[in-house]
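G.,

No rush on this.
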Amino acid sequence: MALLEVEGVNVVYEPTRGQRIWSVRDVDLVLEQGEFVGLVGESGCGKSTLGFALTRMLRPPARLEKGVIRFDGVDVSTLKGEELRRQRRNGFAIVLQSGMNALNPVRNVEHHFGDILKAHAHGGEHYPGATVRRRGAELLDKVGLDASVLSRFPHELSGGMRQRVSIALALALEPRMIIFDEPTTALDVIVQKAVIQTIKDLQRENGFSAILISHDLGVVLEATDRVMVMYAGRVVEDQPSKDLVSGPHHPYTEALLRCYADPRADEIHLGGIPGTPPDLSLPQAGCSFTPRCPLVQDICRTLDPPMSPLGHGSAACHVRAPSAAVAEEGVNPVH
């Protein structure tokens, strides 16, 4: 049985009366124990919203409209209060994209560890100061930080150190799954690489499952086993990382790869994606990528393509992964 099984998840934002923004639409996802999956796409495509939905951290005006989120066989989409807290303990955690915003500016790092252990204590557990310091020092060492960091406040740490503290906090309860939401945002290239390497080492040593959310395709390809590409709230391609580089299926994935340059290449040629993503507050007719797609055909404008098996993965494209409906229309695949 997979560790995480997601079926038909939809998330809607309702910021004002009568307005509904479908940020996540009909997402299916399967995550095996110990698997490292990347989730990539342009800003605003729903990546972070999906991450918050999977960990049940959505706040108004966002809400889970429908869908099943099954973690270790338990449907966490229906849990509330203490039941949800109990499932989170040793279950799943999230590392937020900005360490400065994720950490409480008026509490030192030791207090952050104490807050987590106290919040998830059960069965009369008690964590005296010495226990918190010992556990905090162990976790900081795992992410390459000295125990002296425990007495420091967030503003006394660099961006990379704050992000490492956030990762250490996520490890506090030894979760089986961690979602990393843009963990390298606003970090310079050298620090980015160090943080990603730390995440890879921890994932390999501890064996937890992981989802890395990023708009940086290079970071995702370097770190993960499998990549899921999101566009306009939907997953449009799902492939092993090595196959995605050599043979992308969805036209949007191809466009993203043209925006990515391998720094080891002798020659670098960068492209762009014309147009802009659709307004998700408006009804979406057909494939959302149609206005920007060079392969568009008539059926693309009227029918939203389902995810269909293709190669070692799957894609949602009428042209590249024809469905039965496409066959009836007589559309010829483009290779």
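When you get to it, here's the other one too:
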Amino acid sequence: MQKRRFVSTRTLQSGMRIDQAIVDATGRDLIRRGAFLDDFQIEYLREKGVAGIYIVEGEPDPEDLLGIHVPEYTKKVVEKARVEDRSKVVLNESIKKLVGEGIQYLFSNPDSDSFVEATDNIANELANTILANDAVAVDVNILKCNDEYTFKHSVDVATIAMIIGKKYGLPKEELKDLGTAGLLHDMGKSKIPKEILNKPDRLTEEEFEIMKTHSTLGYQILKEKGKFSDAILKGVLEHHEKVSGNGYPLGLKSDQIHTFAKIISVADIYDALVTDRPYKRAFSRRTAMEMVLATSQDLDIDVMKSFIGSVILFPVDSIVALSNGEMAKVVENSPAYPMRPKVVEIRTGRLLDLPNDTSCANIIVL
């Protein structure tokens, strides 16, 4: 839900979204309405003596974007039943841009003398953002930071992994290292031939065997730096291991696999499923969650429970399609049942308690 407020230019921050146009004497837009402000634009406003501007926070109402009319009686039911989502990670545009560009630099310069320092700076930015508040969940719809899959995926995995780690009970001092391992888990792909890495079709068996070396290559890149903890190294090396022993590169089982790798594995699989690739369309969030749950024989059960309790698939106020043919508005999420939020049908105003009411058992969110 969007909120508009007036902010003094003295307190403006990069990444805030302006809710008015800044024009010159001819009426030409200097800063368009809806733009995310950067440091240069903020300094310009201050130099021009602008005392303050209107900014907008939050997301636009989904029904407005979809052109859906919500009857007044439905609005009253929604207002009465609505419960705010538990505290979520918020990555503003400037952080997403900074971290995304930083990861792109690392992948392009794995042999750089400044690699360790740059990694530390990027990991600190992400960790400080995630740990600065009491966030206990992540809305997987807002993570996209870059159109380039490898870099976007690395930031998404690190973010999801840190929230899972928080739920899992890892101490705060370990969460930054977990985030670092998440950011660098695919670093070995910088050594994979581009024709394989960027192939628009499915890989052949021979190509896949080459691709599978990326976890070992990433481990070697980081180990040679001599600055990364054993936990980070194992998180990178073992993130494709499975508790069943069917993973790679070492075929480790259960307790042989480091906790960081178990957490990154879940985050990695989920994010890959919900992301478009040249050779496949992204799965829906609900389908991806079902697919992750279906591989429970390969994933650590306690990490899976932490994942289920950490991810918000359908944020409060979002519009969803139901299997009974109705459109509905989400009014409350249940950490134990992320695929079954409490909703209100838009047309009828009927409240459906999907996680608890057995009479709704045959209705699912599509």
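The first helix runs from residue 39 to 47. Residues 205 and 331 are 47 Å apart (CA to CA).

Enjoy the weekend,
O.
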